[in-house]
Amino acid sequence: MLLYAKMFYERLIRMKKNLLIMLFLLTFAPAAQAVTVTHDFAVRLGVFDASRTRFSYSLTPKDYSVRSTVATNGLFDTLYPFKAEYATTGKIKKDGLETASYKYKSRSRFNSRRKELVYNNRGEPIYRISAKNDKEKKVEIEQRADNKDTTDLQTVMAKLALQYNQLKFCAARMQVFDGKRRYDVIFKDEGQDTLPATEKSPFSGTAAKCSMYIDKLGEKGDDLLWDLTKDRPIYFWIMEETNSKAPFIAKIKIDDTPLGELEVHTTNITIED
Questions:
Q1: Where are the domains of the chain?
Q2: pTM across the whole model
Q3: Closest CA to 115 of 7, 214, 14
């Protein structure tokens, strides 16, 4: 059981960055002036308190940057100690958001990994650089016809945030290319819900419930996000921060993983001008 938990969590780590990007980018809104938001949350997997994570992102009228750290907690830290750092930068333009850089690095008990996507001045990924234990590989990204007008998953979530901030609904279909795979992300509205304050999160009140599906368009993948969205959605609940009224995701949930429910709860938000 412990070995299975370790293997499952090893794959969960590769998926987690996509959930967490969604968590903090939904507080995204065009900034009239510089602002920095720090977002703390806890991840629980079945009976396990899996990780504590902190995000910090900064916005100006023209640019955005996001930094985050993810680290194992409790039993998972004993079984499989892991720490990762993510950094994304981009430009805010009149016709949308444009990624400028994406970097990732991680360290586990036995391995260190690094990944970078290199973009041109049109916001298109042209190279993928990956390294494991300092063995680096650089791959040119094929410019396929069906990759035109696509974006990365981080920017998809930011676009959803802008849409929700302006229109107050989630429903949308967006085209994604992640450097390897071309797929669509589908968001649906699931009505209103009421979240109580609990020991997991202090936030309570009315929330908009939404769901996210992945239309894989025949693409193959061996990561956990690909497996878990095969026949089930990712649910998330959007609330408004009391003072700024900025929307944020208070909770994320995936039902019926091999180790039980996966839940992400926001524990604290700090907004600084």
A1: 2-56+64-82+144-272
A2: 0.77
A3: 14
